[in-house]
Amino acid sequence: MATLKDVAAKVGVSITTVSRVLNNRGSISQETKDKVFKVMKEMNYFPNEMARSLSNKNSHLIGLIVPYIDHTFFGVLTAAIEEACYKLGYKLFLCTSGGHSDREKELFSMLQANNVAGVLVCSRVVESSAYKESAIPLVSIERTIDDIPSISCDNYKGGVLAAQELIASGCEHLLLIGNRIVSEHLPAYLRYKGFRDECQRTGKAYSEHYIDSEDIFGKNLDKNVKDIIKRYPLTDGIFATSDVLAAHLFNSLGNSQEFPKRYKLVGFDGLDISEYCGISTIAQPIRQMGELAVDVLIKRINESLVAERYILPVSLIRRKTSCPQTSNKIK
Amino acid sequence: MATLKDVAAKVGVSITTVSRVLNNRGSISQETKDKVFKVMKEMNYFPNEMARSLSNKNSHLIGLIVPYIDHTFFGVLTAAIEEACYKLGYKLFLCTSGGHSDREKELFSMLQANNVAGVLVCSRVVESSAYKESAIPLVSIERTIDDIPSISCDNYKGGVLAAQELIASGCEHLLLIGNRIVSEHLPAYLRYKGFRDECQRTGKAYSEHYIDSEDIFGKNLDKNVKDIIKRYPLTDGIFATSDVLAAHLFNSLGNSQEFPKRYKLVGFDGLDISEYCGISTIAQPIRQMGELAVDVLIKRINESLVAERYILPVSLIRRKTSCPQTSNKIK
């Protein structure tokens, strides 16, 4: 690859001049600037951005830690974050923790060692104290950390909407199937609480069944779903707290032969899979959450004031697995 | 953040000694080494890896260009690549081009300017000449480039298997629905050719319908699918050349009310959505393709000999939308 020296020699100026052009310093004629850029292009010369970032305060690198990139929720979120970074002249350093606390910690250290300007951490599993001590600008997605800006959707409202849709579809015995959530301080816990509160408010019977929190992809659900349903034989309405769980349920319980005739079903997230399967769902504004996270992080990098919590609205998408208009109860 | 100087002062040694410990140079006692690492940990000191990578030949950074990260195929592939990089001590720089040629070129330049040790480019849209001239180690996934190692699945075999499965399920009038592919030199074109050859070999009637190649997510398919089917009214077996297309078809044509009774359906890729919808598919070994890509790229970085083309096996996953055992033809 061509060096700065090669470019200077070809243009017939000093290395200092080329360096000044690159860094937009000193007074250089437009003619010389044009010549330098033309030769740089011809010679395939790239100023070493890493070297430059070391002498700059802002590296324009953003680190992103997600647990999984092959889970559609994180895929869509990452795509939105990457797009927003690109538009604002930042580059994204993507890391996946596999949901392991040790690896998440290690990645956070690694990102700092690589001189990132800020870090976005999504669905952290590491205790919040590990982040609170850090001096680097930080934004948390889907989890709260004291004194760190966080972004989530209105999970409570989502739970309420799910219950309302099932009840409006004529359900009398509601069942929530979700991932076991360890702490009541997690925003997603509010999803459960909203559902529960609405069932209690309207006097409907409801049960809750939790699958292993390790099983975010719901792989074990397929094997166990019939056993689960046997335990709650009166069930006529199911709230699956993620679309991935909803799709597994839909598939294991007999697709459109059983839905919506025997069971009504509402998922959560608003992923494409719910569209493919025709499942009603509570949609999170995932892309907007990603864009907002980048916007807030860059404000933090530039030391602007930001809010402590951002809660974005959710919305019901009605498809084939719920049907408030007909409202025919089937036992 | 603590500096090298702070660490040296706290340990009571010179900066040179700390630097030697970090770079594993000179003869330093184990006792001093242990002390330095202990203090570095206590003081939260991270050696600046970017600065270090500049003085090293190998930055241990790998660039990855994919068109989309929110498409499950690329999500699964990226997850496998990230995991493989992590295990081998490399970090991944993820970029998405949105399928735009200009942006893909720009990203490729940007990655080189950021001192990456090598680049993985998946489903490139930029002409191969742009990559051939490059001096940086490169591996291409899903596309071939002269003199550059490429990785793909056995697309031809996949097309043959899809046709065989539909024919064994009793289909007489086969229809291929795929993305319009611009060049016959693309590996995915072989998917079509394999299907076509097997139909001809067995004397079955077949048609082909192509949707806009821009529409990789098949969003427009939902609106048009009934019109498409009207044009081929005898159709009893469909090969959708991606699982995303297959899922859209499945949803638009009436889920399990129509499949497999009226139509048999086989997808391609082996993504989770085919499992959720119960769709038979030809599975690519996506994770293995990602792992292999990293392995080959690191071999290139280390100037080891690698093959020019790697073709990985595909396999049929039989689900509800095909049924060779019953073989009842329905018109």
Features:
homodimer; 331 residues; alpha/beta; 434 Repressor (Amino-terminal Domain); Rossmann fold; 14 helices; disordered C terminus
Give a written overview of the molecule:
2 copies of one chain form a homodimer. By secondary structure, the first copy, chain A, is α/β, with parallel strands linked by helices. Chain A is built from 14 helices and 12 strands. The first copy, chain A, has 3 domains: 44 residues, 434 Repressor (Amino-terminal Domain) (Orthogonal Bundle), CATH 1.10.260.40; 120 residues, Response regulator (Rossmann fold); 131 residues, 3-Layer(aba) Sandwich (Rossmann fold). In chain A, the strands form 2 sheets. Chain A has a 6-stranded parallel sheet with strand order 2-1-3-4-5-11, with helices on both faces. In chain A, strand 6, helix 9 and strand 7 form a beta-alpha-beta unit. The longest helix of chain A is centred in the N-terminal third of the chain and has 16 residues. The C terminus of chain A is likely disordered. At the A-B interface, helix 4, helix 5, strand 2, helix 6 and helix 11 of A face helix 4, helix 5, strand 2, helix 6 and helix 11 of B.
